[in-house]
Amino acid sequence: MDRLIRQQEQSFHTQNGRFLPLMEEFYTIQGEGYNTGKAAYFIRVGGCDVGCHWCDVKESWDASIHPLTATDDIVQRATSYPAKAVVVTGGEPSMYPMDYLTGNLKNYGIKTFVETSAAYPLSGIWDWVCLSPKKTKDPLPENYKLANELKVIVYNKHDFIWAEENAKHVNHNCLLYLQPEWSKAKEITPLIVDYVKNNPQWNISLQTHKFMHIP
Fold first, then answer.
1. CATH code at position 57
2. What pLDDT is recorded for position 135?
3. pTM assigned to the model
């Protein structure tokens, strides 16, 4: 799997991001973090070697099973919807060159948001960077300063300590969010509520799209 991802990554870079391994794309309501409740077009790219055991889109990990799709076609579909906002997620978007995609979206006046573990150098022109760090592959140090939002998934009590460690590295304007891992939400959410009440620099993020039964 790793070999296939590396081969495809090299191919994508030689094409300057004109093709991406597209897992899915859809128009919906952002369900998490600062931009919760806003309409946006989601572009999910395949390929991720971060490997979170609780990941709810493990089918995105293997880039080779997702078709190489012309970025120009993705942009045209994204521009056909009323909301002028695009969220690029994965998989792991930072594995791929995003300048071509975001540059073309900006030509249409579209705001560009990315959700990333930031384990690789970030490329592209972004209006909003949601950095969601993962224990299995640390963010690159330089990417912390680019984050508008730090969103830490809380799976167990130690994750509160880990969240604070990550918060030390972001810029002073970065918004801080704690989000319960969905399968343990009933157990973890009360802990997050208490934590935020005692540490009000943090905010709570919930996966509201799952409550609304939308993508």
1. 3.20.20.70
2. 92
3. 0.91
